[in-house]
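Quiz preparation item.
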């Protein structure tokens, strides 16, 4: 699975690099090397715009599956059914020894552990959102410079533009 991810990212990188250099040529700007392209807003914005939507979708899926169910699905519990054995918290010393340390610790650590997948997707979404905005601001400022405008925007200001 990682190899498919890696090949997709390399494909996006190579096609983006060639497209970016063609656009640079059309505007009379110098081309960038393969290593320079990694830091260009064009690449950063494209990658993290894609990742942003994926992490948002997966995070929403995790959150919504808490309340939604599908009748007949082997992955869903019967909402009208009783409590399953796996849902009962056992205060058995033997079970506590085998439990992960956050379960043994309890309190806020347990709450974080119980919601760790949702929190992970939320953090990844926020990181992707921020990097998408950062890359977009770089592209926007570069476009403004190429078209003779002295207007520059920060990443936060870019969020208020129609291009974001």
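Solution:
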């Amino acid at each position: 699975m990682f190899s498919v991810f890696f090949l997709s990212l390399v494909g996006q990188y190579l096609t983006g690099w060639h497209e970016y250099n063609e656009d640079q040529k059309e505007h009379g700007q110098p081309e960038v090397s393969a290593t320079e392209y990694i830091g260009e807003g064009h690449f950063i914005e494209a990658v993290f715009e894609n990742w942003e939507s994926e992490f948002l979708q997966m995070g929403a899926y995790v959150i919504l599956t808490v309340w939604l169910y599908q009748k007949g699905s082997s992955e869903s519990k019967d909402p009208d059914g009783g409590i399953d054995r796996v849902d009962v918290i056992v205060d058995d010393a033997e079970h506590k020894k085998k439990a992960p340390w956050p379960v043994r610790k309890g309190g806020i650590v347990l709450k974080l552990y119980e919601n760790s997948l949702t929190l992970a997707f939320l953090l990844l979404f926020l990181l992707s959102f921020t990097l998408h905005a950062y890359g977009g601001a770089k592209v926007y400022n570069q476009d403004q410079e190429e078209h003779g405008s002295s207007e520059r925007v920060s990443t936060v200001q870019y969020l208020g533009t129609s291009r974001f």
